[in-house]
Amino acid sequence: MELQSHSETVKETRLLLVLSLCVGILVGIVGGVYNYLTNHLDVFRDFVEAHLSITGVVIAMALGTFISYVLVKKYAPEAGGSGVQEVEGTMIGKRKIKWKQVVPVKFFGGIAAQLGGMVVGREGPTIHLGGAIGEMLTGFWKGSKYSEVDIRNHLLACGAGAGLAVAFNAPIAGVLLVIEEMRPSFKFNFRSYTGIMMASFVSTWIAQFIVGDTLDIPVGADQISVIPQVHYLSFVLFGVFMSLTGAAFLYAIKVGYSVFDFLKAKVPYITFIVVAISFALLFQINPNYNSSGMDLLANHLNDAQSLPELASLIIGRLVGGTISFCSGVVGGVFSPMLFIGASLGKVYALIAPGLHIYSAELAIIGMAGFFTAVVGAPLTGVILMSELTGQYQLLLPMGIVCMVAAMMMRFFGVKPLYESLLKRDIRIFGDESLKKAKN
């Protein structure tokens, strides 16, 4: 009996790892194509600008935003925004990913929103797409002695990790996101670690054939200096600064959702027509305030800017990101957060004694610290910024800032972004566990 049990376990593990590999391949293909299309939206905009008047360009861009909203409203309301919380909610049985609706809405809705110049990123859609692909492949697991919940959670986690890995060419960060962000709903063992690593690394490898193997925020070795240890005490205060600004960002998101819930209940289509046209017009005036900002970050790290200029960028990105994310169109919040975090890091470099010469370094650390304060995943923040920039010299100061930011957010009792969003989704769309209990 023991030999038979061992044999069954080996077969189960083999099949589960094969499904994990399939998740990685599919997420790599879907996520790679999604990234390729969103990376080349400027080509399409240039084509439109060459053949249409400014009015025509504004209408075309506004139509993109409006299409994203209509797709979400009519076919998959839960696909609006990021979607990370939907994956987490499905893993604890509170939500359910309807992959047949989510995949096309997330894919085409995300592209349409970025075409419209909305301040959203690609990582939320790719993580949600990854979770949906994992949910789809759950149907191939039949007759197992393991619970369907364990199998589903494994494949959802593989999809989520692979989704982040594809978005930023960052496989290790993809694995860490699952460990930190989804730990309450996931059983960790050697098989699960192996499956998530396989999905994340394979998806990254596959996507590189489509979008290339380049850093999202290329930073040369000559642009970064080792910060002397005498300044490390300043990083503790930097972590506190990140927690305060992170809490302000989360409050802005909360207020933004309240405003849009009210407006969508009263005048939904008029609201989105106004939003869509406004962002399209803003793109014509100053495109630096539109889109995710990932393509601007490499130059932004080394640009010499005054406090008023940085304040303008932070406020503009904060307002634009809040409106975009809370409006209900498809898009993630990671990428816009990184631009705000980099700008806050440069602000701290200007106001902290002796750190003005380390502006680029503090911008990178600021991205990690702000990400940690908002999401609540310090290890992911440290490794993600290292993989994005290709620079690992700042691991220790980044670790200090992220650790302090995470501790301060917990001390203040501020809930991480996706925990709050999940509670909101359950309130609006319903609790799947209660629906099952009634049935």
TrEMBL record:
It is a multi-pass membrane protein. One of its GO terms (cellular component) is plasma membrane. It comes from the Bacteria. Its main location: membrane. The keyword Membrane applies. The chain crosses the membrane at residues 15-37, 52-72, 154-178, 190-211, 231-253, 265-285, 314-341, 362-386, 392-413. The keyword Membrane applies. Pfam families: Voltage_CLC. It is found in: Membrane. GO terms for molecular function: voltage-gated chloride channel activity. Coiled coil: none annotated. Keywords: Chloride, Ion transport, Membrane, Transmembrane, Transmembrane helix, Transport. Gene3D superfamilies: Clc chloride channel. This is H(+)/Cl(-) exchange transporter ClcA.
